[in-house]
Amino acid sequence: MERALRLSAQGLFDRQVAELCEVSIGAVQKWRTGARRAHEDEDLRRHHSCPRCHGRDLDHVAYAHLLGLYLGDGHIVRCRKEVFQLSLFCGDGWPGLIEEAGQTMAQTMPTSSVSRRQRKGCTEVKSYSKHWVCLFPQHGPGMKHQREIKLADWQQEIVEAHPGMFARGLFHSDGFRGMNYVRRALPSGVRWYEYPRYHFKNESRDILALCCEALDLLGVAWRFNNRNELSVAKREAVELLDLYVGPKY
After folding, report:
1. What share of the chain is helix, strand, coil (3-state, %, to 5)?
2. Which sequence spans correspond to the domains of the chain?
3. Closest CA to 72 of 60, 88, 86, 85
């Protein structure tokens, strides 16, 4: 490469330099313009992009949100070689959620592209990286509710600093905000009351516990409706959670 650059500096055409150095014209052009070095720098940046392995800065707000989305309705699978695919499945009725999932995924791992794939009734938002498993040590074989789900110390610190974004990810993936209708028989006749409330349903007791902890950090009152479902129904609690979560859109 150094010889080719010297010959180019002397005024030789790329074809002449290629013939003298016995390389392709494309290689000479890349050396002369710096395109190859830029490509090499990009490869280096991509291979040293993990906050856990290489100390790259991690967007804690985006990660707290992505962690909630992953625990609620995401998974990681191994692809070719050592590359892993992180997938989030979002209902097609919530285009805002699909867009937000892609954004938070890109903010968490900016060196990896994000793509979408249409599935039956939903959109798969996915990204490939060697380091998704570094950011999500909860990854493992089998369903999440069939194995222990415990946050690492560094994950716990992020969730405690941003419980609202973590709760947003959980409720937008495996929960919802809807209206509850109550029928009351009064002396004056039957009356119907309606009020908003949140539900979060998950088969993993560990993930349910993490959701409860996040709500406690926010000061949001909650209770269990069933063994695998919790709700937030008190007016003050719903209004507070609206500041962080809100309905899907």
Report:
1. 45, 25, 30
2. 2-47, 60-242
3. 88
pLDDT exceeds cutoff 70 at 44: no
The pTM assigned to this predicted structure is: 0.77
- Domain 60-242 carries which CATH code? 3.10.28.10
Give the chain's largest Cα–Cα span.
Answer: 102
**Does the structure show a pLDDT above 50 at 94?**
yes
The DSSP bridge pattern shows strands 229-232 and 122-129 to be unpaired
In sequence order, which ranges of the chain are alpha helices (DSSP H)?
A: 2-9, 14-21, 25-33, 35-47, 60-73, 95-108, 132-135, 153-161, 163-174, 205-218, 235-242
Contact 129, 83 (CB under 8 A): yes
Task: Name residue, tokens 């809807």.
Answer: 178
Cα angle: 202, vertex 132, 218; to 5 degrees: 45
Phi then psi for 231, rounded to 5 degrees?
-135, 155
Q: How confident is the model at residue 154 (pLDDT cuts 50, 70, 90)?
A: very high
Whole-angstrom CA distances from 120 to 86, 91, 92 are 19, 9, 9
DSSP code for 204? -
Which pairs count as long-range contacts for 148-151, CB under 8 Å and 24+ apart, including other chains? 148/206, 149/71, 149/204, 149/206, 149/207, 149/210, 150/206, 151/210
